[in-house]
Design goal:
With about 160 residues, this protein is mainly β. The chain has strands at about 10, 20, 25-30, 35, 40-45, 45-50, 70-80, 85-90, 90-95, 100, 115-125, 145-150. The strands form three sheets. Strands 7, 8, 9, 10, 11 and 12 form a six-stranded antiparallel β-sheet that branches.
């Protein structure tokens, strides 16, 4: 049993029903997110058209662009004030002939004081223009997105989900 969730754990106890789709760069949560950071309880109210962060919480820099035939995991998280932040995992190559990733995308580091609540896998095709998280539209040509709601970050990399 993962006792870290019970004793001073960081997790969300409700799904925000995170969505990110269409000809826009914003995100929506349609349900309040109740979450814990190191055992303290917080709530983030549901919100529509929330500005997607344009810089990585870990580096402070703009997100790395995904070029043709690349894939990456992005983790959405909340701080104690309910501010949405995002971290980008390492970019991996996609086989252009079979549209399959060479390796499974890894999660980014999650800084202390933040609770993951969503995960997004982005994959670009051979016909895509460079795609930048927070700047490029979700429905850009040649881009596939998969959005997953989380209670906590899964222990294993994304080996069973595809964008």
């Amino acid at each position: 049993m993962n006792t870290g969730i019970v004793e001073g754990g960081t997790f969300s106890s409700t799904s925000g029903l995170l969505t990110a789709a269409g000809a826009e760069t914003v995100i929506d949560t349609t349900v309040d997110i109740k979450f814990s950071i190191e055992g303290f309880a917080y709530t983030k109210a549901a919100a529509a058209d929330v500005a997607t962060p344009t810089s990585d919480i870990n580096t402070g820099d703009a997100f790395e662009a995904l070029d043709e035939d690349e894939s990456c995991a992005f983790v959405y998280m909340l701080d104690a004030s309910g501010n949405v932040k995002v971290a980008q995992g390492p970019v991996v190559r996609v086989d252009p002939d079979y549209d399959v990733r060479a390796v499974n995308p890894q999660y980014p580091a999650i800084p202390a004081g933040y609770c993951p609540f969503g995960l997004q896998l982005i994959q670009t095709a051979g016909n895509s223009s460079p795609w930048i998280f927070g700047t490029s539209n979700w429905n850009a040509a040649g881009v596939t997105t998969l959005t997953l709601n989380l209670f906590c970050l899964p222990q294993r990399p994304l080996n069973t989900v595809t964008a």
